[in-house]
Amino acid sequence: MLDAHAEIGECPVWDDETATLVWVDQPRGVVHRFDPVTGIDEQLVVGQPVGAVALRKSGGLVLALRDGFGLVDADGGEMRLVCETELERTDTRMNDGKCDSAGRFWAGTMALDYTPGAGTLYRLDPDLTATAIVHDVTCSNGLAWSPDDRTMYFVDSFASGVDAFDFDPADGSVENRRRLVEIDPSEGQPDGMTIDRDGFLWVALWGGSCVRRYAPDDTLDACVRVPVAQVTSCAFGGPGLDDLYITSAGDGLTSDGWSVQPQAGGLFRASPGVGGAATRRFAG
Q: CA–CA separation, 51 vs 25, rounded Å?
């Protein structure tokens, strides 16, 4: 679809107003906006590593950055840091994130050396205040919410699975954490995630060359294969929200690795036969 050669492509988000896909190359600090019709991929350099992006209701973007949360206005001006989360720490950075139904932006941190339990999942409210919600996270990653908005799903990549929380959409609180999906490390590491209209989870597997579809009862239902190993995230997009866009990474590949998988770091598109829900936007 797009031979981007991203170092670590992440966090695809479909913009239904412009019919484009927004995504990031995390270590390079670049936000991309890809038009699947023209093939044009515009780039915005934000000045520091960016782990996640979401659209704003007022226009522009909200970002999960190395130092905290940032905003880009609709006019496409420079990024401004609006909420510092772990600025005093030089050993962590923010990673994947997503908006809930009330327009709150969730994103978490991880240690640069993957120290166990060094990360935290934060919730950024529309008034631009951040609250630490889940502690002792090793690699904060994919997020999704059930169609009835009563369950939040969360991936801590090094925990080898997907967890579920009871979710209160009124105040954005979570409780009763439990394991939903267990993934054998030999099959890949769970990374980014999305959910379809039927409430099935789509989980990208780093090192697994695929995105898997899991039923709400944890049954493995389907698998979309891609020609690269390091699959990072996925999102539904397109006119009917029935295209599955998949990001990947070329991080750490040797010359031999690139020769085996020359499309590493690319953006892929699949037609899985199901669709997703409309993109949720940040209300701040």
A: 8
Label residue 76 by pLDDT band (50, 70, 90): confident
- Do residues 94 and 51 lie in contact, with contact meaning Cβ atoms separated by under 8 Å? yes
Q: Calculate the CA dihedral of residues 73, 195, 20, 13 and round it to 10 degrees.
A: 30
Would you mind telling me the total number of residues written for the chain in this entry?
Answer: 284
Domains and CATH numbers, the chain: 9-270 (2.120.10.30)
HSE, side-chain direction, 13 A CA sphere, residue 6:
32
Residue labelled with tokens 């990653």: 141
Rounded to 5 degrees, what angle do the CA atoms 274, 275, 280 make?
155
- Residue pLDDT, tens place only, 112-157: 999 999 999 999 999 999 999 999 999 999 999 999 999 999 999 9
Report the C-alpha gap between 141 and 205 in whole angstroms. 12
Beta carbons within 8 Å of 77's beta carbon, 6+ residues apart: none
Residues 271 and 69 sit within 8 Å (Cβ to Cβ) = no
Whether 166 sits among the annotated catalytic residues: the reply is no
SS3 category, 259: helix
First-residue to last-residue Cα distance in the chain: 32
pTM of the model: 0.96
**CA 136, CA 162: separation in Å to the nearest integer?**
15
Going by the DSSP 8-state scheme, the letter that residue 187 receives in this structure is G
Q: Does the pLDDT of residue 87 top 90, yes or no?
A: no
Instruction: Determine which one of 96, 191, 196, 243 is catalytic.
Output: 191
- Cα 109 to Cα 2, 203, 212, distances in angstroms: 28, 19, 24
Cβ–Cβ < 8 Å for 30, 50 = yes
Q: Where are the alpha helices (DSSP H) in 116-220?
A: none
